[in-house]
Amino acid sequence: MASLEEIRQTRLEKLSFLIEKGIDPYPVHTNLDVSCETATVQFKDLAEAGRSLYMVGRIMSLRAQGKIIFLDFNDGTGRFQALLKKGEPLSSESFELFEKAYDIGDFIEIKGTLFLTKKEEKTILAEEIRMLSKSLRPLPEKWHGLSDVEERFRKRYLDLLSNEEVKERFIIRAKIINLIKQFYNEAGFIEVDLPNLQPLAGGATALPFKTHHNALDIDFYLPIAQELYLKELLAGGMNKVFEIGKRFRNEGIDTSHNPEFSMLESNEAYADAVSQRDFIERLFKFVVKGIFGKLQFEYQGQEIDLEGKFKIMPYPKITDEEYKREIRPTLIQPTFIIDYPVSFNPFAKRKAENPSLIDRFQLVMGGLELVNAFSELNNPIDQRERYLEEDKKGKAGNKDISPSDQEYLEAMEYGMPPNGGIGIGLDRLIMLLTNTKNIKEVILFPTLKPKD
């Protein structure tokens, strides 16, 4: 069997052969009339019309039988079969050129008419064929030689090409995010764009990534959260706002954590944790119904049912580590965890009936923490005191803090409406709805240590 380098060298020779023939192996313009999907769905009408059509795609398989060649090609919308017949109607010269210079993996343009073979296979009979992009490396054959999981993540383009299930997962990811946006838009929210270079890493308690701006000669931080900017917009009179974007937390990597991840954050004036729980329940039912057509789906062998009201339970009086290890993995059905101690979040309001607790909830489903939300603190005096506690932790060596933000405190002192805030970990939600156990499987290009 030829080595990868030998195959590459052979293909480079074919590339040179095409160029010597005066053929551009990477032309600017492409002719395209119908996609593979359209040709399949509208095959009867297109075939009966008898008109020559242009189709394009990547060669996925070749079957040569003397003076005829069958090939399958994929344009990203689906696969279709082509038939090349030497001299009828494809010229002998074009047929021989194809035999000498074309390989699986090449992108091609085919002009021809549609017909059914004797086996009733939908096919385009090639009249002309043209190279659109000459490939220099062979495609992996069902992951032969590319079985290493990390290698799949590094070469996601090959993963998508070779594994239809992976491609479908990312199509579903896009649908989920679009459904979420639709729900928020229909609820009267405005989507906003917020800065990714921040002078302080605030809005959450996590270790940030730091960078430096040369012209200003100051350090900036990548966002661990966008909560504070959203609440400043509420102070400015924008009552319902949300943002979907990247967050960066300089922490460990495991099956449910990636340092760079996608998050939705929203704030609504005059809302509180109770109204936000109702909002989240309606949102999740809307998304699940939009994806599955029903309110039940399977995750890791267990059926999750969103039909009734979500369960509510108080945060257990155990350590956070014990909760995460012993309780959270058992919460398969949708469950709101409420009544957290004040120390858990510096931005949440205290409960009126018990000031030692905050008006906060998290949504857990399938053992995954999906949502963090609470009645937002809008008392600047209380916020300043909470910041002082955070600063004390920082001086004591704790790096997972939210440091004092004087500009945010100033905005609060101008007056901020009571409001409810929501944070949704989109990658984990997509894990849940695509029945995936590893967060890297739902991020196109997850964070990996560079190869030596």
Automatic annotation (TrEMBL):
Reactions catalysed according to its record: tRNA(Lys) + L-lysine + ATP = L-lysyl-tRNA(Lys) + AMP + diphosphate
EC number annotated for this UniProt entry: 6.1.1.6
Compartment(s): Cytoplasm
Start and end residues of each Aminoacyl-transfer RNA synthetases class-II family profile domain: 170-450
Coiled-coil region list: none
Gene Ontology molecular function: ATP binding; lysine-tRNA ligase activity; magnesium ion binding; tRNA binding
Record GO cellular component, one term: cytosol
Alphabetized UniProt keyword annotations: Aminoacyl-tRNA synthetase, ATP-binding, Cytoplasm, Ligase, Magnesium, Metal-binding, Nucleotide-binding, Protein biosynthesis
Highest taxon of the lineage: Bacteria
Cofactor: Mg(2+)
Binding site for Mg(2+) 1: E369
Details of cofactor binding: Binds 3 Mg(2+) ions per subunit.
Keyword Aminoacyl-tRNA synthetase tagged: yes
Residues that, per the record, bind Mg(2+) 2: E369
Pfam family, one: tRNA-synt_2
InterPro entries: Aa-tRNA-synt_II, aa-tRNA-synth_II, aa-tRNA-synth_II/BPL/LPL, Lys-tRNA-ligase_II, Lys-tRNA-ligase_II_N, Lys-tRNA-synth_II_C, NA-bd_OB-fold, NA-bd_OB_tRNA
Primary residence: cytoplasm
Family of the protein in this entry: Belongs to the class-II aminoacyl-tRNA synthetase family.
Subunit structure: Homodimer.
PANTHER family the record matches: LYSINE--TRNA LIGASE, CHLOROPLASTIC_MITOCHONDRIAL, LYSYL-TRNA SYNTHETASE
Protein name: Lysine--tRNA ligase
